[in-house]
Design brief:
Elements: H1 34-39, H2 44-52, H3 55-65, H4 77-82, E1 94-99, H5 108-115, H6 117-131, E2 135-140, H7 145-160, E3 176-181, H8 191-198, E4 222-226, H9 227-239, H10 241-246, E5 257-264, E6 270-275, H11 280-287, E7 297-301, E8 309-310, H12 321-325, E9 335-340, H13 345-359, H14 365-382, H15 390-400, H16 410-424, H17 426-433
């Protein structure tokens, strides 16, 4: 997987000053191993953090930078770190990296782990110092075979160089890091389900409170951060808060840069590091190149299968949480999907809800029973066998499975695209009630994960 670019991307070379996440990438897409990473200023921020900064200093820097979680929820990283206990007598703490990237249409963390494994390791080392965590785990999606291999090699390199293990760089700080591959469940992306799975338990979300910062893995204080989030930490510590804030576009309430992408029948599908606040239109037209010849943009999702559908007129929204929120959905992972005019929304939603229903842990009734119910109704509409009242039942399910109605955020994310599709494309659902089976230019298979 490589970063691709056209238009303005060709006139904006990746540099350490403008592209902190991706400037070290090789043109041949080969991994950047330790020697090359250090030649490109790698581990300089870690050396600074261990020699010159206290844990409280690092937390304050990250908090002041405005860094937010990059996994989709967007919670402020510094505030999350601040929830860890201040009591130094609690000497067993854990840092977990959430690398269970199973959101359909999302592949950004895979790029970082496969090609820049040391950047993630450095980010975890600095973060562990801030959190006073002596052990870390990278909870990795089991299907990411290349990422697992590259991360394990990079960890071995770092340990041999004295950058992991005991008394790192003579600082007196100890940190061990391990890769743990999961068995392939979408629900493991929820941090407490991830913790249960790491402990060898069934991957069900836990009741909160207590939050992981108080009672996490094996009952000890635990912080869980996303791959892209942790990969931002070295640049923030190395270059400072003001520099990091300056990267975002005017008007953005989110700071720094973000890995963003566009897939679907666009001319140049790809992944780019771009400043928060860039408009979706720039991402779609200047980077992704617009739709392929013969296709028209029907609608789009802003960041993964669990975000609502938006219309072409929403492309002028700025790509940050508040900007996308103004047009009715969430930014999510920032990897957008273009839906073309050959796709019927009933078939697309049946496909999505099948995935979400399959990945439900079954812990709470609304999610366990509601999502399969939506699949049955959508399948009937797709065959032209829908009954009067089916659309109203789907709308009820959207409400009953919405935020605050279920044990975790799985079901609310699952029904968000359904609610938006019913809002914008109701006539396509009504056609299934009238007895007209859905016809599309192409079949839609279940998501390949």
């Amino acid at each position: 997987m490589t970063l691709t670019s056209i238009g303005p991307a060709n006139r904006t070379p990746r540099t350490a000053e403008t592209h902190p996440l991706t400037w070290r990438l090789r043109e041949d897409a080969e991994p950047v191993w330790l020697d090359e990473y250090q030649q490109k200023n790698g581990y300089a921020a870690a050396r600074k953090a261990l020699a010159e900064l206290s844990p409280a200093d690092i937390v304050a820097i990250v908090k002041d930078s405005g860094l937010k979680g990059r996994g989709g929820a967007g919670f402020a990283t510094g505030i999350k770190w601040g929830l860890m206990p201040a009591d130094d007598s609690i000497d067993i703490r854990y840092l977990l990296c959430n690398a269970d990237e199973m959101e359909p249409n999302t592949w950004k963390d895979r790029l970082l782990m496969e090609q820049l494994p040391h950047q993630l390791i450095e980010g975890m080392l600095i973060s562990a110092r801030a959190l006073k965590a002596y052990r870390g785990y990278i909870f990795l999606r089991g299907e990411y075979i290349d990422a697992a291999r590259n991360l394990n090699r990079a960890i071995a390199e770092a340990k041999a160089a004295g950058l992991l293990g005991k008394n790192i760089l003579g600082s007196g700080f100890d940190f061990e890091l391990f890769v743990h591959t999961g068995a392939g469940r979408y629900i493991c992306g929820e941090e407490t389900a991830l913790i249960n799975s790491l402990e060898g338990r069934r991957a069900n979300p836990r009741s909160k409170p207590p939050f992981p910062a108080a009672v996490g893995v094996w009952g000890k204080p635990t912080c869980v951060n996303n791959v892209e989030t942790l990969s931002n930490v070295p640049a923030i510590v190395g270059n400072g808060v003001d520099w990091y804030k300056s990267l975002a576009r005017p008007g953005s309430e989110d700071m720094g840069t973000k890995l963003m992408g566009f897939s679907g029948k666009v001319k140049n599908p790809g992944l780019w590091e771009l400043p928060f606040g860039i408009t979706a239109r720039e991402l779609f037209e200047d980077y992704a190149g617009g739709m392929r010849d013969g296709y028209r943009l029907k609608c789009w999702q802003s960041g993964g299968a669990g975000t609502g559908f938006l219309l072409p007129e929403h492309l002028d929204a700025q790509m940050y949480a508040g900007g996308i929120g103004k047009v009715g959905t969430r930014m999510g992972t920032g990897l957008a999907l273009a839906v073309d005019d050959s796709i019927n929304m009933v078939s697309l939603l049946r496909n999505l809800e099948e995935f979400f229903a399959r990945e439900s842990c079954g812990w709470c009734t609304p999610c366990r029973d509601g999502l399969p119910w939506s699949v049955k109704l959508l399948s009937a509409l797709e065959r032209g066998e829908g009954q009067p009242g089916d659309l109203e039942t789907l709308e009820q399910l959207v409400r009953f499975l919405g935020p605050g109605k279920t044990f975790c955020a799985h079901a609310p994310g699952a029904v968000e695209p359904l609610g938006s599709a019913l809002k914008y494309f109701r006539q396509e659902f009504e056609a299934g009630v009238r007895g007209s089976p859905v016809e599309t230019r192409q079949s839609i298979a279940a998501p390949q994960i």
